Amino acid sequence: MSSRSRPARVGFLACFAVLVALGVGFFNDCLASLGLSVAALSQKAPATSKAEPAAEAEVRVRIVVQGEQCRLDGAKELRSCDVVCGEQIPGAIVELAATAGAQRAVEGLRTCLQRRGAKVQVISE
After folding, report:
1. Three-class secondary structure of residue 102 per DSSP
2. Greatest CA span in the chain, whole angstroms?
3. What predicted TM-score, i.e. pTM, was given to this entire model?
């Protein structure tokens, strides 16, 4: 007879059985959905020293607000601010030059651009 009591032996055997089951599952790729597979551990992620090119090439746009109308920087014709907002790329960085614009037009354009996912900087010097 063993020196351990019966409950102590059952607990030890239960823990051992759980460890064996986890080991078998690991080596049979049963735990791959958790990222704990042999293939995932054997492959090393390549270290990248450069940032992704998409992150470096941010789109910057400057919009000038004059009165109730807007124009892209460099364009000569004034257009409706709603039209200019609809043409912007989501995720772009937009600078609003609002020195000669009506506050209502500037705020309307700013909220429109933010809804489309643009980062807006208002310049009112």
Report:
1. coil
2. 99
3. 0.52
Under 8 Å CB-to-CB from 22, ≥6 apart: which residues?
Answer: 31
Positive or negative, the CA dihedral 112, 114, 117, 119 is positive
Residues 35-78 have pLDDT tens digits of 555 555 555 555 554 544 554 457 888 999 988 999 887 888 99
With beta carbons less than 8 A apart as the criterion, state whether 111 and 82 touch. no
Task: Tell me which residue has tokens 């032996």.
Answer: 9
Q: Tell me the residue type at 83.
A: V
pLDDT digits (tens, 9 = 90+) for 74-98: 888 999 988 888 888 777 888 888 8
- Distance CA(63)–CA(84), nearest Å, equals 8
Say how many C-beta atoms besides its own lie within 10 A of residue 96's C-beta. Answer: 24
Strands laid side by side in the 93-101 sheet: 79-80, 69-72, 60-67, 93-101, 119-123
Could you tell me which residues come within 8 angstroms of residue 72 by beta carbon, excluding any fewer than 6 positions away?
A: 61, 62, 63, 64, 84
